[in-house]
Structures are given as C-alpha cells and as structure tokens.
Amino acid sequence: MLDSSSWEVDVEGNFPLHKAVVEVMPRGTKIVSAESCGISAWTNTAKISVILEDGTRKRYFLKCATGQGARPLVEGEFHSVSAIDAVVPGLVPKAAGWGEYDNGETRVYFFLGDFHDMDFSAAPDPGHLMSQIADLHRKGLSPNGLFGFPIPTVCGKMERTVIWEKSWAKSFTHQLKDVIKYDNETNGQWLEYDAACQQLIDGVIPRLLGVLQSDGREITPALIHGDLWERNIGIDMETGETVLFDPGSTYAHNEMEFGTWRCTWAFYFNSPVYMRLYQRHIEPSEPVDEWDDRNRLYSIHPYLNDSAGHPGSFSRQIAYNDMLYLCAKYAPLDCLEKYDPEKDVSVTGAYIPFAMKQLE
C-alpha cells in the first residue's frame, strides 16, 4: 500500500502519482486523474489531467525512468526541450519540469511536459518540417561556440559524452566510443569488429570529419534534436502541427541529425524529398562530395545504439559492414575484412521494422 504522505490520493486513473511531480506544477494545481498513456521502450508514461488555480483545465505528459541513464534521460530531455522551444517555439511540447523521488523500491527520475494528443500514422509535410528543422539548426547556436552540451543527454537510454570540444571530430569520437562500449557490454567482444572500430576512430574520423575544419573550412555547432526518427514525431490532432518529442540534444555538426534516416527502420525519412528540401535551406558542408560518406558514418551511431539496447540485433552487423566500407575508402588496413555490398542497406534497400516493446 502506498504511503499517502508521499503520494497523491483520491485521484482517478491507474497511475500512482508522487507528490514530487505535483511540486513542479503551478501552485494551486488540483489533480483530477493520472492514467497510463503511450508506449515507451525505456520509461513508464502517463497523462495527467489537472485544474489550474484559475479554473483552467490542462493535461500534462509524465515520463518516469529508473536504472541505467535515468537521470540524464529526464534531465537531458528537460534541457533539450527547453533549448529547442526557445529557438523554434511549438516544435516540441513545452517542458514543465523534472525531478526525482523514491518509490519505496528504487530511485525514480521524471520529466513533465505539456500533453499533446497526436496522430503517429501520418507522415509530416516535408516542406514545413524541413523548414523548421533548418531553423533549429541555423538559430540554435552553441552558447560558447563549442561542440557539446551543458549537461549529459541520451539517445534512447544510452548516455552521451557531450563535454565541450572545439573539434567536431573529437566531439563525435566521444559519442561513438560511448555506443561502442555499450554495444560490447550487451553483445560481447568481437575481435574483427573491435579492429574496425579502432581504425574508424584512428583513421576515418580524423580524415572524414577533420577535413570539415581544415584548409580554411569551418562548421558552426548547431542544436540538433539528437534522436530524430519517425517514432519521435507526431501530428497534433487539434492544430495539425508537427510535434517532435524525446530529444537528446547536443550542439553538433548539423548533418549528424540525419544519420538515423539511413537506418533500416526508416520508412518515410528515407525518401529523398525530405533531405532535398532541407538542403534548399542549408547546403551540405564542404567537401560536398563526401556528404553521403559522412551520413554513413553518422548512421553508425544509431545502429550501435540500437544494438546496445536490443541484444542480437542485426544493427551491429550493418554498422560493422559500414565501418569496413569507410575504412577501405579513407584509412585502408590489410588486416580488416572486406566490405560486402550485399549487406549494405543503401544498396539493397532493405527495411527492418524497429521493434519496440512497452516497458512493464
């Protein structure tokens, strides 16, 4: 039985609501109901209906996380949402707050934001969405001109290393090392894979990303959503506007935003119309002819992130093959295995749905 001194009582619905959550709401808020809502792989989520002190009815979306990456997941989302909303108002649900409490068994970290009733079956309008994403990347400027983020954020539940760096190659290397480590912890060591990872870090990244900031070239750190794919986008049922959610932001090379769109689970962002319309606003970085190779490199991060979160996922093999392609082109090493075009999604066009199971 829940201790009434810590939990809201006489609240309709099936979701126990801790008083710590209410404390981040406006003073005088009355809780009407708290109901489980939505599907999330890493968190428990709920819709909270309230009456504000002035009598206005309002709904909040609550996300509760425990275990690995729980604090950076919710604290990082709060700061990511706040940063995005300050640049492109309305693109993400407005954040109300974040906090933590003890549920009697473990520490729970929570994020609270505005609730939007969304349709997830319709693809967003390419022209409008890509204009908004371009605005985010152009206007979301790093506070100190460096790559990184003020606090740790996550992709899925995997924490990013986002320490401030002048070099984009170094900044991306931190994040790639993160997911390589998480993947090895989940799926075990693989000697050939480890060798390719090391050569990617030692040879490919300095060449492929280092050139972006050499010979007079410069790139500006841009605020990115950080986990932009079809399951993190909805259409607001009342306004018809596109809404992004679940960001794990960082100030990065803007092109990193689109690595996920190359992955096997992409089902409308892999249409060239989205990227073509984005590039009307922001052209590819120089060297332009290396854009696709950079996109391949950036896709390795979400592939390994997926592999780390889903043991046995085929994503690891795809990422490994992409590493071999890039190593052969930019940093050849005789001891590495050969790239196999029959395992290359950009060649085969294979589609593998992303498996998501509701967290119990």
Summing up helix and strand content along with how strands pair, one would put the structural category as alpha+beta
Number of strands: 12
What are the segments in which pLDDT stays under 50 over at least 5 consecutive residues?
none
Morphology call:
globular
Indicate the mean pLDDT. 95
Strand content: 15-25%
Name the helicity range: 25-40%
> Strand arrangement, largest sheet?
1-2-3-5-4
Q: How much is the radius of gyration in Å?
A: 21 Å
Q: Specify the biggest β-sheet.
A: 5 strands, antiparallel
Output the number of helix runs.
9
How do the helices and strands follow one another from N- to C-terminus? HEEEHEEEHEEHHEEEEHHHH
Q: Terminal Cα separation, in Å? A: 19 Å
